[in-house]
Amino acid sequence: MKPIEIADGVFFVHSEMVNWVLLTDGDAVTVIDTGYPGQRGDVEDSIRAIGRNPQGIEAVLITHAHVDHIGSAQYLADTYRAPVLVHPDEAAHARRECHEVATPWDVLSNIWRPGVLPWAIKLIRLGGTAKYGIDSPTPMPVPGALTCPGAPVPVLAPGHTSGHTVYHLPDRGVVISGDALITGHLTSPVSGPQLLPQWFDHDRGMAAESLRIIGELDADILLPGHGPIHHGSVAEAAATARERVGASR
Ligand SMILES: [Zn+2]
Ligand SMILES: [Zn+2]
Prior knowledge:
CATH architecture: 4-Layer Sandwich
CATH class: Alpha Beta
Bound molecules: zinc ion
Largest sheet: 7 strands, mixed
CATH topology: Metallo-beta-lactamase, Chain A
CATH superfamily: Ribonuclease Z/Hydroxyacylglutathione hydrolase-like
Structural class: alpha/beta
Shape: globular
Helix content: 25-40%
Number of strands: 12
Number of domains: 1
Distance between the termini: 36 Å
Strand order of the largest sheet: 1-2-3-4-5-6-7
């Protein structure tokens, strides 16, 4: 999983199961999402692959507190003394004071669908069934750009989880969309801009509404939490995903 420099100082790391993003400013690094627990070495390797040292991690940001996005967050925080910044609306979920996750029952009742069983087996191998949270997430100051490398602007896009946050890089024309807008998933029969299958979302109606929020961001590169990079108007990508939600009702 070789990082791709998609814009100046913006690196996308795509893996089969989940993606993450690195933002750099000189030697300093912001990590946005951190893979599954079993991918911590991959996250560190991705930082070395772009010529930086994990010691240079200044901040760890998460889009939301599902295990495939926070799997290395606590480790990176402890090892490199970097804060884990989360949107205030996602902080309780990150501390596991509430649960907004597909349950084992959700998985089992969908296991007959194409792709779900292979996905579940890979998830188990990557430590995805661990009871995993973040001990002391730092609520990020909102609204406005953060001061960490890349100066990402957090934008609340709730639904997948209550505090799901996308990150806009207005100067680079990039949106990092986490699971609020994806382009593919092992459990999805279609490719291109879409929401995850419904049973992954905490509040499907709100997730569909949040596509309007994402569609208002001025950008032409979408870096999703799952699936490949999408080049082209993010507004159009969000509209495509909205149409697909309508068609699946
Ligand atoms: Zn998720
Ligand atoms: Zn995810």
